[in-house]
Amino acid sequence: MEDLSLHILDIVENSIDAGSDSISIKIDEDTNTDRLTIEIDDNGKGMDAETIKKALDPFYTSKTVRRVGLGLPMFRQAALAAGGEFDIRSVPGRGTQVRAVFQHSHIDRMPLGDVSKTLLTLLMGHPEVQFSYTFRRDDCEWRFDTEEFASGDSLSTMDTLQRIRVFRQHWPKMS
Amino acid sequence: MPKLNLEDLDKISEWRRRTTMLREGAGRAKVTVHMGTCGIAAGARKIMDALLRLVEENDVKDVILTTSGCAGLCSREPMATVELVNEAPVKYVDLTEEKIGAIFREHVLGGRPVLEYALALGSERTQ
């Protein structure tokens, strides 16, 4: 993966495969403690302790079309390579939380990349899922929630073009 | 006024059929970008982004863009599948932004599959 926003896309696709319909993505850049934290919370079917362990093994996958599952192992590796840490918490039937911490200034820390492209890609594939996104850098915070602009007209009833335009209108202008 | 021939009538009925499908929310075409780990690592989001821009620039209202997971052909990613109404889906492999641009113009808007970028042509031989 070229950047962290692509990892986020990949992990959220896992969440959706696990049946989630509400997903929260949080990015926290704390320059005082020199940490960048990414947290993805879903309300999917969750995993037991045994499955969590297996999920970090590159030769485990829940899929049948191939024999490897590299999404979580690569995300974990990206965090550990940047002096960070990685953990998964999950309650079967309730959901899963994936948390990756990076040393912000680490030379091997991947750039964040374009999170808006990740969100828009997710909205195209899964208009029925509610996504909330919080980005924090020290004292500044930006929020984006598909629930806020889906009132009345649901995203899943809009055509592709409408969905793109509504997204562009609501995406916070970050400077 | 020139006389209508059979071909014109066909065209009209085709156009009617498509606009009816459109009204019912089916769209003229569906483009699915494969968004598994392999696809994402190979650049599938760039392909999706290029398609989004093409839809916006051309003001296309009847093309559905969506995503799917890994189809098991990881070495040929990025991949996308184009389905036109009442036609067999075509899978495109080893995509780049230039290739998806050509596919969008030729196949999605023009109705002519871009065979040189497609996964396979014809069927295997049996003895």
Draw up the topology in text.
The complex is a heterodimer of chains A (175) and B (127).
Chain A: H1 4-17, E1 22-30, E2 35-42, H2 49-55, H3 71-81, E3 85-91, E4 95-103, H4 115-125, E5 130-137, E6 140-145, H5 146-149, H6 160-170
Parallel strand pairs in A: 1-5
Antiparallel strand pairs in A: 1-2, 2-4, 3-4, 5-6
Helix pairs in contact in A: 1-3, 1-4
Chain B: H1 6-23, E1 29-34, H2 37-42, H3 44-57, E2 63-68, E3 80-84, E4 90-92, H4 97-109
Helix pairs in contact in B: 3-4
Task: Write up what this structure looks like.
The complex is a heterodimer of chains A (175) and B (127). Chain A is built from 6 helices and 6 strands. Chain A has 175 residues and is of the alpha+beta class. Chain A has a single domain, classed as Heat Shock Protein 90. In chain A, strands 3-4-2-1-5-6 form a 6-stranded mixed β-sheet. The longest helix of chain A has 14 residues. The radius of gyration of chain A is 16 Å and the shape is globular. The two termini of chain A are 25 Å apart. The model of chain A has no long low-confidence stretch (mean pLDDT 91). Chain B has 127 residues and is of the alpha+beta class. Chain B has a single domain, classed as Glutaredoxin (3-Layer(aba) Sandwich). Chain B contains 4 helices and 4 strands. Chain B is globular. Chains A and B meet through helix 1, helix 4 and helix 6 of A and helix 2, helix 3 and strand 2 of B.
